[in-house]
Design goal:
mainly alpha; 4 strands; 5% strand
Length: 238
């Protein structure tokens, strides 16, 4: 079946999924091969190609939407929403700690190389979700494969948390998920590494380079206009 881009009010997305072209942009603007994007988001290469073709044929519209998303992420939440999120997070973290304590008490207290109890329960179920991009930490865009980049090198969960802007509880939930689904996670992670190592065919890389240059020119043009408007506003206020 042909991959189609539709819009149900969340932005242009790949039909049959919840993945938008903005999700694809996160990887496309970094020059990822379409097979690597497909492996990361657990969709077909045909679907990724359909999304990138949409991006190229609606460059300015997609770029404007993507920029709004990045700006909103950079601003963060209003104080009242952030306070609500912090309260919910504290409640969830307390629940996770309680569940972790019960699991540890029921285990044989074996320790992994990082000095914490090995995964012995379904502790991860409260935190890990899958929206079509692969298993990820609820409330974030970070997948278990992002965690794998550090976990396989023996990083302590507190160091991973600090690097990715997560809590230790979230990282522990992700590593518990990895331990509970080791074969499946490792197989997919290995496929991603192999896709990255293969790189893009010359003709596709040339196309990506051209698209990247086009985006870069648009970014610089927009930044230049913003700087000029800011300078004019300061002059007007003097």
């Amino acid at each position: 079946m042909q991959a189609v881009i539709i819009d149900r009010g969340r932005g242009p997305e790949i039909t049959g999924t919840r993945i938008t072209v903005y999700d694809i942009m996160d990887y496309y603007t970094q020059g990822w091969h379409h097979t690597a994007i497909a492996a990361r988001l657990r969709i077909s290469s045909r679907q990724v190609i359909a999304a990138t073709e949409y991006i190229e044929s609606h460059t300015e519209e997609v770029l404007a939407g993507y920029r709004r998303i990045l700006d909103r992420d950079a601003r963060g939440n209003p104080p009242e929403i952030e306070a609500k999120r912090a309260a919910s997070h504290a409640k969830l973290q307390a629940l996770l700690v309680e569940r972790r304590g019960r699991a540890a008490a029921a285990s044989d207290h074996e320790r992994d190389p990082n000095g914490r109890p090995k995964a012995t329960s379904d502790f991860w179920r409260a935190t890990m979700i899958d929206r079509g991009r692969g298993p990820e930490i609820a409330g974030t865009r970070i997948t278990v494969y992002d965690i794998m980049d550090y976990y396989t090198e023996g990083w302590h969960h507190t160091a991973i948390a600090a690097t990715l802007g997560l809590s230790s509880a979230q990282v522990i939930a992700a590593t518990d998920y990895i331990e509970a689904h080791k074969d499946a996670v490792q197989a997919e992670y290995q496929m991603m590494l192999e896709c990255d190592a293969l790189g893009n065919p010359p003709e596709l890389q040339a196309k990506l380079d051209a698209t990247h240059a086009k985006f870069q020119a648009l970014w610089e043009n927009r930044h230049g206009k913003a700087a000029l408007e800011s300078e004019n506003a300061r002059d007007f206020g003097r």
